[in-house]
């Protein structure tokens, strides 16, 4: 069975973040992630999860280095006492200097924190660079078929650099119960209307085709089977029915390893 992780919105209430992270660790999930949207510091928001757990990896997916300097990430990690031995710091960039920022960011974060650095990657050039420099690759809004192509691109980059292929994780949006499809379509439309439009066009796939809209636990399990043998870890990016802990725990239990 492919390893499984959990990902929540960084703006989730601290107590819900802590409860979900603790339960994820107890259920055998391997990683717990927060995203890094706009003004919300996804790095700092990991602090409640770090305090509530002892072993699960803690990830941020991903810090946009064209709007936030890697040195600021280092400061936030230290200020909030995050355990660097468990930290998976995701980075990315969408501007013309993206590759330079990625190289510099990976080097700085490794030197200053000694943690594993992941790189968000969509197309072939970014996947190739991630294969050359990153400790892991984080795919987003990807079909299993595109993830397999991405793994090939990452592998070629690693081969050019004379190093093993980094591990590949995939964010997979998951919604459960009534309204699941609508929640995914709403989330997907926001991405497709922005920088991800070209990504969906390249894949010739809609956001819904990359996600799992499940009526029940059985349907969620069936959706996850499509990812077996595709990536090293599937990260279930929750789109819960509400902000309450119960809605998060329902998905957590349904998708448990």
Fold blueprint:
Layout: E1 3-8, H1 14-27, E2 31-34, H2 47-52, E3 57-64, H3 70-79, E4 87-92, H4 98-113, E5 116-120, H5 124-133, E6 136-140, H6 144-161, E7 167-176, H7 180-192, H8 197-203, E8 212-214, H9 217-225, E9 233-238, H10 245-254
Describe this structure in words.
With 257 residues, this protein is an alpha/beta fold. It has one domain: TIM Barrel (Alpha-Beta Barrel), CATH 3.20.20.30. Helices cover 44% and strands 21% of the residues. It has ten helices and nine strands. Helix 1 runs parallel beside helix 10, helix 3 packs parallel to helix 4 and helix 5 crosses helix 6. The longest helix has 18 residues. It is globular.
CATH topology name? TIM Barrel
Question: How would you classify the quaternary structure?
Answer: single chain
Flag low-confidence runs: none
Tell me the number of structural domains.
1
Give me the number of helical elements. 10
Q: Biggest sheet, open or closed, and with what strands and sense?
A: 8 strands, parallel, barrel
Q: What would you give as the CATH superfamily?
A: Luciferase-like domain
Q: Order of strands in the sheet with the most strands?
A: 1-2-3-4-5-6-7-9
Query: Can you count the beta strands?
Result: 9
By CATH, the architecture is named Alpha-Beta Barrel
| Name of the top-level CATH class | Alpha Beta
